[in-house]
Q: What sequence folds into this?
């Protein structure tokens, strides 16, 4: 699967889009699992998830694959996947030129732009904080 960290640059710093999952309540980044229609290409998974969850045309963003992978075991909040191992590649998505408001789907309870400091204070999973810092080193 994929984790997609949308970012946009303002005058002083980068802002990052953090989402809250409607079902689990986890505060994280937009993410999703690979499906058959993705043809085994994680970039297609990232593009599909951006469209499905955020109603954004992927062509409006600049997707940047990273060499950072999030490996984990699903917890009991995802009943259908509890205990299963997963590996998600982290992608950055430059949303600086995106002028429209984020209109997210019912999969998400909220979507907010945050500073790096706010991201670190709000992410549910400690290991994702480390992966976030590693992924954004290239910015």
A:
């Amino acid at each position: 699967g994929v984790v997609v960290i949308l970012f946009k640059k303002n005058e002083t710093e980068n802002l990052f889009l953090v989402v809250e999952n409607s079902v689990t309540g986890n505060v994280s980044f937009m993410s999703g699992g690979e499906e058959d229609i993705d043809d085994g290409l994680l970039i297609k998974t990232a593009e599909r998830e951006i469209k499905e969850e955020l109603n954004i045309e992927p062509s409006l963003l600049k997707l940047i694959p990273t060499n950072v992978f999030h490996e984990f075991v699903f917890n009991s909040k995802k009943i259908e996947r509890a205990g299963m191992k997963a590996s998600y590649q982290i992608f950055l998505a430059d949303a600086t030129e995106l002028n429209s408001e984020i209109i997210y789907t019912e999969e998400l309870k909220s979507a907010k732009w945050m500073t790096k400091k706010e991201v670190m204070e709000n992410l549910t999973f400690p290991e994702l904080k480390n992966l976030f810092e590693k992924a954004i080193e290239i910015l």
Notes: The longest helix spans residues 42-54. The longest strand covers residues 62-73.
